[in-house]
Design goal:
With 271 residues, the protein is mainly alpha-helical. The chain contains eleven helices and no strands. The relative contact order is 0.13.
């Protein structure tokens, strides 16, 4: 009898097994697909891969993770607008248009051979430059100055003061430094995250100085001392480039932007 049972079992049709279901995308991955990313940055450097961005963003769960879906997409567009502007190889007459060339460069041009020593300072911070190292702009938001490399490295447990070159050699590290800068409050400035999400509430003095939440405030935080309130044609063009990227990416993500995205009337912060 046992032999018969085994024989029948051997010839029985197996029960169909359903393939395991993959979990739906979460976090930033739910807002931005690989296809969208490649459409944003069709000429991006291999360092700036979609995978590197998604892995880096996982370390900052509040990035593009607060507020309505529209607000989350707006923050994503704002972050990429600045990253694209800081690393672009585009311009008037560029193939595919000026907004197709973001995330092209990994390092500040003209600095790789030690010509930009102005960045080799720790200021009043405890983070002093290491001998023989340079701290010029690297990565999506062009992390600069020894004190920023040192603070970012200390807070993310990365040896950036000793090895600043990691920011332009490892994609995840590159995006992590950019997101660190985006998310971190450095008083008296709010974080870019809080400014674009509306979490930062300007004081009476801020309002007098025309500082209000939105994309314009993120320009002020990143480079306000040079770009805000300037009527220099080249600098106005820089602001316009940031705003142009912002509007393009927001449109591709299906979200809206503020009526006024500029910082032309905002007072910048001191050093």
């Amino acid at each position: 009898m046992l032999f018969t049972f085994l024989l029948l079992a051997a010839w029985a049709s197996p029960e169909p097994v359903s393939p395991p279901r993959s979990a739906p995308p979460a976090g930033v991955e739910a807002l931005l697909s690989r296809q969208q990313y490649e459409r944003f940055f069709p000429h991006h450097h291999p360092l700036y891969s979609y995978e590197a961005f998604i892995k880096a963003a996982a370390y900052f769960p509040l990035f593009a993770g607060e507020g309505s879906p529209e607000m989350r997409r707006r923050e994503l567009a704002a972050f990429f607008a600045h990253a694209a502007h800081e690393t672009t190889n585009g311009g008037r007459g560029a193939a595919g248009g000026p907004y197709a060339w973001g995330l092209f460069y990994t390092e500040e041009l003209g600095c790789a051979d030690g010509h930009c020593k102005v960045y080799n300072t720790g200021g009043n911070s405890p983070y002093k430059p290491a001998p023989g190292k340079s701290y010029y702009g690297r990565g999506p938001l062009q992390l600069s100055y020894a004190y920023n490399y040192g603070l970012a490295g200390a807070e993310m447990d990365l040896p950036l003061l000793a090895k600043p070159e990691l920011v332009s050699q490892d994609g995840i590290t590159a995006f992590k430094t950019a997101l660190w800068f985006w998310m971190r409050t450095q008083a008296p400035k709010p974080s870019c995250h809080d400014a674009i999400c509306g979490k930062w509430q300007p004081t009476t003095e801020d309002r007098r100085l025309k500082r209000i939440p939105g994309f314009g405030m993120t320009i002020n935080i990143i480079n306000g001392g040079i770009e805000c309130r300037s009527n220099d044609p080249a600098i106005k063009e820089n602001r316009g480039d940031r705003i142009g990227f912002y509007r393009r990416f927001a449109g591709l993500l299906g979200t809206t932007v503020e009526q006024d995205c500029d910082c032309a009337d905002m007072a910048p912060y001191g050093n």
